[in-house]
Amino acid sequence: MPLCITHPKRKNQIERTFVMRFLTCVLLSAAMGLSAAALAADKKADTKKNEKPAVETKKEAKAEVKPEIKMAEADPEAMVVKINNTVIKEKTVADETAKRLEVQKKRMPQGMEINDWMRNQVRGSVVEMLVERELLNQKLAEKKIEVTDEDVMKEIETIAKAQNLTMEQVPAEIEKFGMTMDDLKSQIRMKVQMDKLVAAEMKDGKVTDEDVKKFYDDNPQYFEKPEQVQASHILVKVEKDASDADKAAAKTKIEGLLKQVKEGGDFAELAKANSDCPSKERGGDLGMFGRGQMVKEFEDAAFGMEVGQVSDVVETQFGYHIIKKTGAAAAKKDALEDVAPRIRQHLEQQKRNEFWQSYNKQLHDNAKIEYSESEKALREQNAQPRMPMPPAQPQPEHQHDENCQH
Protein backbone atom coordinates (compact mmCIF):
# COMPACT_ATOMS: atom_id res chain seq x y z
CA MET A 1 0.00 0.00 0.00
CA PRO A 2 1.37 3.44 -0.87
CA LEU A 3 2.36 5.72 1.96
CA CYS A 4 0.48 8.99 2.22
CA ILE A 5 2.08 11.96 3.91
CA THR A 6 -0.45 14.66 4.59
CA HIS A 7 1.80 17.46 5.78
CA PRO A 8 5.47 16.73 5.00
CA LYS A 9 6.65 20.23 5.89
CA ARG A 10 5.67 19.75 9.53
CA LYS A 11 8.57 18.26 11.41
CA ASN A 12 7.06 18.03 14.87
CA GLN A 13 6.18 14.36 14.36
CA ILE A 14 9.82 13.47 13.72
CA GLU A 15 11.28 12.20 16.99
CA ARG A 16 14.89 13.19 17.61
CA THR A 17 17.18 11.24 19.86
CA PHE A 18 18.07 12.58 23.27
CA VAL A 19 21.72 12.97 22.32
CA MET A 20 21.02 15.13 19.28
CA ARG A 21 18.67 17.39 21.20
CA PHE A 22 20.84 17.48 24.29
CA LEU A 23 24.16 18.10 22.59
CA THR A 24 22.67 20.61 20.17
CA CYS A 25 21.53 22.59 23.19
CA VAL A 26 24.96 22.27 24.78
CA LEU A 27 26.90 23.21 21.69
CA LEU A 28 24.66 26.17 20.86
CA SER A 29 25.14 27.43 24.39
CA ALA A 30 28.87 26.76 24.48
CA ALA A 31 29.77 28.07 21.05
CA MET A 32 29.64 31.69 22.14
CA GLY A 33 30.78 32.94 18.77
CA LEU A 34 27.63 31.71 17.06
CA SER A 35 24.21 33.35 17.17
CA ALA A 36 21.68 31.35 19.18
CA ALA A 37 18.62 31.51 16.97
CA ALA A 38 16.26 30.62 19.78
CA LEU A 39 13.28 32.43 18.32
CA ALA A 40 13.44 30.68 14.98
CA ALA A 41 13.81 27.34 16.74
CA ASP A 42 10.67 27.97 18.75
CA LYS A 43 8.76 28.38 15.48
CA LYS A 44 9.79 24.81 14.55
CA ALA A 45 10.93 25.95 11.13
CA ASP A 46 13.52 23.23 11.11
CA THR A 47 14.84 24.27 7.71
CA LYS A 48 18.33 23.47 6.53
CA LYS A 49 20.69 25.43 4.28
CA ASN A 50 23.29 23.49 2.38
CA GLU A 51 26.42 25.40 1.52
CA LYS A 52 27.97 24.49 -1.81
CA PRO A 53 31.72 24.67 -2.29
CA ALA A 54 32.97 27.32 -4.66
CA VAL A 55 33.40 26.03 -8.19
CA GLU A 56 37.03 25.82 -9.26
CA THR A 57 38.48 25.33 -12.69
CA LYS A 58 40.41 22.12 -13.30
CA LYS A 59 43.57 24.14 -13.62
CA GLU A 60 43.04 25.88 -10.28
CA ALA A 61 42.18 22.65 -8.52
CA LYS A 62 45.30 20.98 -9.85
CA ALA A 63 47.44 23.86 -8.67
CA GLU A 64 45.97 24.20 -5.17
CA VAL A 65 45.00 20.71 -4.03
CA LYS A 66 47.78 18.84 -2.30
CA PRO A 67 47.98 15.15 -1.43
CA GLU A 68 46.46 14.44 1.93
CA ILE A 69 48.80 13.96 4.86
CA LYS A 70 48.51 10.54 6.46
CA MET A 71 49.34 10.63 10.13
CA ALA A 72 52.10 8.23 11.05
CA GLU A 73 52.49 6.66 14.48
CA ALA A 74 53.52 9.50 16.76
CA ASP A 75 55.27 9.62 20.09
CA PRO A 76 52.47 10.00 22.68
CA GLU A 77 54.71 12.35 24.68
CA ALA A 78 55.54 14.56 21.71
CA MET A 79 54.41 18.20 21.81
CA VAL A 80 51.56 19.11 19.50
CA VAL A 81 51.03 22.69 20.61
CA LYS A 82 52.29 24.95 23.38
CA ILE A 83 50.04 27.65 24.79
CA ASN A 84 52.12 30.12 26.78
CA ASN A 85 53.84 27.69 29.20
CA THR A 86 51.43 24.76 28.85
CA VAL A 87 52.21 21.87 26.50
CA ILE A 88 49.50 19.71 24.94
CA LYS A 89 50.89 16.31 24.04
CA GLU A 90 50.09 13.85 21.29
CA LYS A 91 48.40 11.39 23.65
CA THR A 92 45.82 13.97 24.70
CA VAL A 93 45.07 14.87 21.08
CA ALA A 94 44.99 11.24 19.91
CA ASP A 95 42.66 10.11 22.68
CA GLU A 96 40.14 12.90 22.09
CA THR A 97 40.35 12.44 18.31
CA ALA A 98 39.61 8.72 18.68
CA LYS A 99 36.53 9.47 20.79
CA ARG A 100 35.17 11.93 18.25
CA LEU A 101 35.83 9.59 15.34
CA GLU A 102 33.91 6.86 17.14
CA VAL A 103 30.96 9.20 17.58
CA GLN A 104 31.20 10.24 13.93
CA LYS A 105 31.31 6.64 12.75
CA LYS A 106 28.09 5.82 14.60
CA ARG A 107 26.35 8.60 12.70
CA MET A 108 27.60 7.61 9.26
CA PRO A 109 25.58 5.51 6.79
CA GLN A 110 26.27 1.80 6.89
CA GLY A 111 29.20 0.87 4.67
CA MET A 112 30.75 4.34 4.70
CA GLU A 113 34.26 4.52 6.13
CA ILE A 114 36.20 7.34 7.74
CA ASN A 115 39.01 8.34 5.40
CA ASP A 116 42.26 10.20 6.05
CA TRP A 117 40.76 13.55 5.09
CA MET A 118 37.95 13.16 7.65
CA ARG A 119 40.40 11.95 10.28
CA ASN A 120 42.67 14.95 9.73
CA GLN A 121 39.74 17.36 9.88
CA VAL A 122 38.54 15.90 13.17
CA ARG A 123 42.05 16.02 14.61
CA GLY A 124 42.35 19.67 13.58
CA SER A 125 39.11 20.54 15.34
CA VAL A 126 40.29 18.69 18.46
CA VAL A 127 43.53 20.67 18.58
CA GLU A 128 41.60 23.92 18.21
CA MET A 129 39.25 22.88 21.02
CA LEU A 130 42.17 22.03 23.30
CA VAL A 131 43.81 25.39 22.59
CA GLU A 132 40.53 27.16 23.34
CA ARG A 133 40.10 25.20 26.55
CA GLU A 134 43.62 25.94 27.75
CA LEU A 135 43.31 29.66 27.03
CA LEU A 136 40.04 29.62 28.94
CA ASN A 137 41.57 27.76 31.90
CA GLN A 138 44.49 30.16 32.06
CA LYS A 139 42.20 33.18 32.08
CA LEU A 140 39.98 31.60 34.74
CA ALA A 141 43.02 30.98 36.93
CA GLU A 142 44.16 34.58 36.45
CA LYS A 143 40.70 35.87 37.42
CA LYS A 144 40.41 33.32 40.27
CA ILE A 145 37.12 32.00 38.86
CA GLU A 146 36.30 28.42 39.87
CA VAL A 147 33.88 25.91 38.34
CA THR A 148 32.98 23.07 40.67
CA ASP A 149 31.63 19.61 39.91
CA GLU A 150 28.39 20.78 41.49
CA ASP A 151 28.18 23.65 38.96
CA VAL A 152 28.61 21.17 36.11
CA MET A 153 25.98 18.72 37.36
CA LYS A 154 23.53 21.54 37.99
CA GLU A 155 23.93 22.69 34.38
CA ILE A 156 23.42 19.16 33.04
CA GLU A 157 20.26 18.84 35.14
CA THR A 158 19.00 22.18 33.82
CA ILE A 159 19.50 21.17 30.21
CA ALA A 160 18.00 17.71 30.74
CA LYS A 161 14.95 19.23 32.44
CA ALA A 162 14.47 21.60 29.53
CA GLN A 163 14.25 18.50 27.31
CA ASN A 164 11.72 16.85 29.67
CA LEU A 165 14.23 14.15 30.56
CA THR A 166 15.51 12.78 33.83
CA MET A 167 19.14 12.43 34.83
CA GLU A 168 18.69 8.67 34.92
CA GLN A 169 18.10 8.66 31.16
CA VAL A 170 21.29 10.52 30.28
CA PRO A 171 24.08 7.89 30.57
CA ALA A 172 22.36 5.17 28.54
CA GLU A 173 21.37 7.57 25.78
CA ILE A 174 24.76 9.20 25.28
CA GLU A 175 26.41 5.77 25.36
CA LYS A 176 24.67 5.01 22.06
CA PHE A 177 26.86 7.69 20.51
CA GLY A 178 30.09 6.51 22.07
CA MET A 179 30.03 9.08 24.86
CA THR A 180 30.40 8.69 28.59
CA MET A 181 29.25 10.94 31.39
CA ASP A 182 32.85 12.09 31.78
CA ASP A 183 32.85 13.20 28.13
CA LEU A 184 29.61 15.08 28.64
CA LYS A 185 30.80 16.67 31.87
CA SER A 186 33.94 17.88 30.09
CA GLN A 187 31.86 19.65 27.45
CA ILE A 188 29.48 21.11 29.99
CA ARG A 189 32.37 22.28 32.18
CA MET A 190 33.73 24.33 29.28
CA LYS A 191 30.31 25.89 28.75
CA VAL A 192 29.95 26.81 32.43
CA GLN A 193 33.48 28.23 32.42
CA MET A 194 32.58 30.45 29.49
CA ASP A 195 29.37 31.56 31.18
CA LYS A 196 31.18 32.52 34.39
CA LEU A 197 33.98 34.32 32.58
CA VAL A 198 31.56 36.31 30.45
CA ALA A 199 29.50 37.20 33.51
CA ALA A 200 32.64 38.50 35.23
CA GLU A 201 34.11 40.39 32.27
CA MET A 202 31.14 41.67 30.30
CA LYS A 203 30.15 45.10 31.56
CA ASP A 204 27.16 45.94 29.37
CA GLY A 205 24.82 43.02 28.77
CA LYS A 206 21.59 44.76 29.65
CA VAL A 207 18.66 44.49 27.25
CA THR A 208 16.10 47.27 27.56
CA ASP A 209 12.35 47.17 26.98
CA GLU A 210 12.97 49.34 23.92
CA ASP A 211 15.35 46.71 22.53
CA VAL A 212 12.70 44.03 23.00
CA LYS A 213 9.99 46.12 21.32
CA LYS A 214 12.24 46.93 18.37
CA PHE A 215 13.06 43.28 17.78
CA TYR A 216 9.36 42.41 17.96
CA ASP A 217 8.46 45.09 15.41
CA ASP A 218 11.37 44.32 13.07
CA ASN A 219 10.85 40.55 12.99
CA PRO A 220 7.13 39.80 12.56
CA GLN A 221 7.92 36.47 10.87
CA TYR A 222 8.79 34.97 14.25
CA PHE A 223 5.47 35.86 15.83
CA GLU A 224 2.84 35.65 13.12
CA LYS A 225 0.82 32.44 12.89
CA PRO A 226 -0.98 31.89 9.58
CA GLU A 227 -4.51 30.62 9.20
CA GLN A 228 -4.78 26.87 9.70
CA VAL A 229 -7.45 24.22 9.31
CA GLN A 230 -7.91 20.70 10.64
CA ALA A 231 -9.36 18.03 8.40
CA SER A 232 -9.82 14.31 7.97
CA HIS A 233 -9.94 12.56 4.63
CA ILE A 234 -10.59 9.28 2.89
CA LEU A 235 -8.27 8.57 -0.05
CA VAL A 236 -8.85 6.10 -2.84
CA LYS A 237 -5.47 5.92 -4.54
CA VAL A 238 -5.11 6.07 -8.30
CA GLU A 239 -1.69 5.24 -9.72
CA LYS A 240 -0.16 7.54 -12.32
CA ASP A 241 -0.23 4.82 -14.96
CA ALA A 242 -3.66 3.46 -14.02
CA SER A 243 -5.89 2.27 -16.83
CA ASP A 244 -9.24 3.87 -17.58
CA ALA A 245 -10.95 0.89 -16.03
CA ASP A 246 -8.95 1.25 -12.80
CA LYS A 247 -9.74 4.96 -12.65
CA ALA A 248 -13.42 4.26 -13.16
CA ALA A 249 -13.40 1.62 -10.41
CA ALA A 250 -11.71 4.03 -8.00
CA LYS A 251 -14.24 6.74 -8.85
CA THR A 252 -17.11 4.35 -8.26
CA LYS A 253 -15.65 3.33 -4.88
CA ILE A 254 -15.18 6.90 -3.65
CA GLU A 255 -18.67 7.89 -4.77
CA GLY A 256 -20.08 4.93 -2.86
CA LEU A 257 -18.18 6.00 0.26
CA LEU A 258 -19.40 9.59 -0.12
CA LYS A 259 -22.98 8.29 -0.31
CA GLN A 260 -22.48 6.40 2.96
CA VAL A 261 -21.08 9.51 4.64
CA LYS A 262 -24.00 11.66 3.51
CA GLU A 263 -26.43 9.03 4.75
CA GLY A 264 -24.95 9.34 8.23
CA GLY A 265 -22.11 6.84 8.11
CA ASP A 266 -19.29 7.30 10.62
CA PHE A 267 -16.54 9.17 8.75
CA ALA A 268 -13.71 7.89 10.96
CA GLU A 269 -14.83 4.26 10.69
CA LEU A 270 -15.19 4.50 6.93
CA ALA A 271 -11.70 6.02 6.70
CA LYS A 272 -10.21 3.23 8.84
CA ALA A 273 -11.80 0.58 6.64
CA ASN A 274 -11.29 2.10 3.20
CA SER A 275 -8.66 4.87 3.00
CA ASP A 276 -5.33 4.27 1.23
CA CYS A 277 -3.53 6.71 3.51
CA PRO A 278 -1.81 5.81 6.81
CA SER A 279 -3.94 8.54 8.40
CA LYS A 280 -6.67 5.87 8.28
CA GLU A 281 -5.29 4.63 11.61
CA ARG A 282 -6.46 7.94 13.10
CA GLY A 283 -9.79 7.88 11.33
CA GLY A 284 -8.33 9.95 8.50
CA ASP A 285 -7.30 12.82 10.79
CA LEU A 286 -4.55 15.00 9.29
CA GLY A 287 -4.16 17.40 12.20
CA MET A 288 -3.75 21.14 11.69
CA PHE A 289 -2.10 22.46 8.53
CA GLY A 290 -1.62 25.76 6.76
CA ARG A 291 -1.64 26.89 3.18
CA GLY A 292 1.11 25.50 1.00
CA GLN A 293 1.28 22.18 2.84
CA MET A 294 -1.15 20.29 0.61
CA VAL A 295 -1.62 20.10 -3.12
CA LYS A 296 -3.77 22.95 -4.43
CA GLU A 297 -6.97 20.99 -5.07
CA PHE A 298 -6.93 19.56 -1.56
CA GLU A 299 -6.03 22.90 0.03
CA ASP A 300 -8.74 24.83 -1.83
CA ALA A 301 -11.40 22.37 -0.72
CA ALA A 302 -10.29 22.23 2.92
CA PHE A 303 -9.98 25.99 3.34
CA GLY A 304 -13.18 26.68 1.41
CA MET A 305 -15.50 24.68 3.67
CA GLU A 306 -17.15 25.40 7.01
CA VAL A 307 -16.17 23.40 10.08
CA GLY A 308 -18.18 20.17 10.11
CA GLN A 309 -18.80 20.24 6.36
CA VAL A 310 -17.94 17.28 4.11
CA SER A 311 -16.71 17.88 0.57
CA ASP A 312 -17.83 16.28 -2.65
CA VAL A 313 -15.25 14.05 -4.33
CA VAL A 314 -11.97 15.95 -4.73
CA GLU A 315 -9.56 14.71 -7.39
CA THR A 316 -5.80 15.22 -7.03
CA GLN A 317 -2.79 13.62 -8.66
CA PHE A 318 -2.96 10.93 -5.95
CA GLY A 319 -6.50 9.84 -6.55
CA TYR A 320 -9.90 10.69 -5.11
CA HIS A 321 -10.55 12.23 -1.68
CA ILE A 322 -13.48 12.92 0.59
CA ILE A 323 -12.54 15.71 3.00
CA LYS A 324 -14.19 16.58 6.30
CA LYS A 325 -13.23 19.88 7.89
CA THR A 326 -13.02 19.38 11.64
CA GLY A 327 -11.42 22.58 12.92
CA ALA A 328 -9.98 25.98 12.08
CA ALA A 329 -7.65 28.57 13.59
CA ALA A 330 -7.60 32.15 12.34
CA ALA A 331 -4.34 33.89 11.55
CA LYS A 332 -2.94 35.73 14.55
CA LYS A 333 0.16 37.37 15.94
CA ASP A 334 1.63 36.60 19.34
CA ALA A 335 1.19 39.50 21.75
CA LEU A 336 4.38 41.33 22.75
CA GLU A 337 3.83 40.63 26.44
CA ASP A 338 3.62 36.89 25.74
CA VAL A 339 6.91 36.68 23.83
CA ALA A 340 8.91 39.43 25.57
CA PRO A 341 10.76 37.03 27.91
CA ARG A 342 11.83 34.89 24.95
CA ILE A 343 12.97 37.94 22.98
CA ARG A 344 14.91 39.28 25.96
CA GLN A 345 16.66 35.92 26.42
CA HIS A 346 17.57 35.84 22.73
CA LEU A 347 18.98 39.38 22.75
CA GLU A 348 20.96 38.75 25.93
CA GLN A 349 22.48 35.65 24.35
CA GLN A 350 23.27 37.64 21.22
CA LYS A 351 25.11 40.24 23.30
CA ARG A 352 27.08 37.50 25.06
CA ASN A 353 27.98 35.95 21.71
CA GLU A 354 29.23 39.24 20.32
CA PHE A 355 31.22 39.91 23.47
CA TRP A 356 32.79 36.45 23.42
CA GLN A 357 33.89 36.80 19.79
CA SER A 358 35.85 39.91 20.65
CA TYR A 359 37.10 38.60 23.99
CA ASN A 360 38.21 35.25 22.55
CA LYS A 361 40.14 37.01 19.80
CA GLN A 362 41.98 38.99 22.46
CA LEU A 363 42.85 35.78 24.30
CA HIS A 364 44.43 34.40 21.14
CA ASP A 365 46.16 37.64 20.20
CA ASN A 366 47.73 38.00 23.66
CA ALA A 367 48.84 34.37 23.95
CA LYS A 368 51.99 32.71 22.64
CA ILE A 369 50.80 29.68 20.68
CA GLU A 370 53.43 27.42 19.11
CA TYR A 371 52.61 24.37 16.97
CA SER A 372 54.97 21.49 16.21
CA GLU A 373 56.27 21.26 12.65
CA SER A 374 54.10 18.24 11.88
CA GLU A 375 51.03 19.99 13.25
CA LYS A 376 51.80 23.08 11.18
CA ALA A 377 51.92 20.91 8.07
CA LEU A 378 48.59 19.29 8.96
CA ARG A 379 46.97 22.67 9.61
CA GLU A 380 48.13 23.86 6.20
CA GLN A 381 46.71 20.70 4.64
CA ASN A 382 43.35 21.14 6.39
CA ALA A 383 43.13 24.68 5.03
CA GLN A 384 43.37 23.37 1.45
CA PRO A 385 40.31 22.39 -0.60
CA ARG A 386 39.48 18.73 -0.46
CA MET A 387 40.65 16.41 -3.26
CA PRO A 388 37.90 16.40 -5.92
CA MET A 389 35.47 13.52 -5.53
CA PRO A 390 34.19 11.41 -8.46
CA PRO A 391 30.72 12.47 -9.62
CA ALA A 392 27.83 10.72 -7.92
CA GLN A 393 26.05 8.05 -9.90
CA PRO A 394 22.69 9.16 -11.26
CA GLN A 395 19.80 8.08 -9.06
CA PRO A 396 16.40 6.95 -10.33
CA GLU A 397 14.01 9.85 -10.58
CA HIS A 398 11.74 9.98 -7.56
CA GLN A 399 8.82 12.33 -7.23
CA HIS A 400 8.01 13.59 -3.75
CA ASP A 401 4.83 15.55 -3.42
CA GLU A 402 3.03 17.42 -0.70
CA ASN A 403 0.60 14.60 0.09
CA CYS A 404 2.21 11.26 -0.70
CA GLN A 405 5.51 9.53 -1.20
CA HIS A 406 6.17 6.04 -2.54
Topology:
Elements lengths: L2 E2 L13 H13 L7 H5 L15 H7 L14 E5 L2 E4 H18 L8 H28 L5 H14 L7 H6 L5 H21 L7 H10 L5 E2 L2 E10 L6 H19 L4 H8 L10 E6 L5 H9 L9 E3 L2 E11 L2 E2 L2 H31 L2 E3 L1 H11 L20 E2 L1
Antiparallel strand pairs: 1-11, 2-3, 2-10, 4-9, 5-6, 5-8, 7-8
Question: How does this model look, in words?
Answer:
This protein is an alpha+beta fold. The chain folds into two domains: 18-46 and 61-215 and 345-385, Orthogonal Bundle (Triger factor/SurA peptide-binding fold); 227-330, Chitinase A, domain 3 (Roll), CATH 3.10.50. The protein is built from 14 helices and eleven strands. The chain has a four-stranded antiparallel β-sheet with strand order 6-5-8-7, sandwiched between helices. It has a three-stranded antiparallel β-sheet with strand order 3-2-10. Strand 2 and strand 3 form a beta hairpin. The longest helix has 31 residues, at 336-366. The chain is elongated, with a radius of gyration of 28 Å. The chain starts with a strand and ends with a strand.
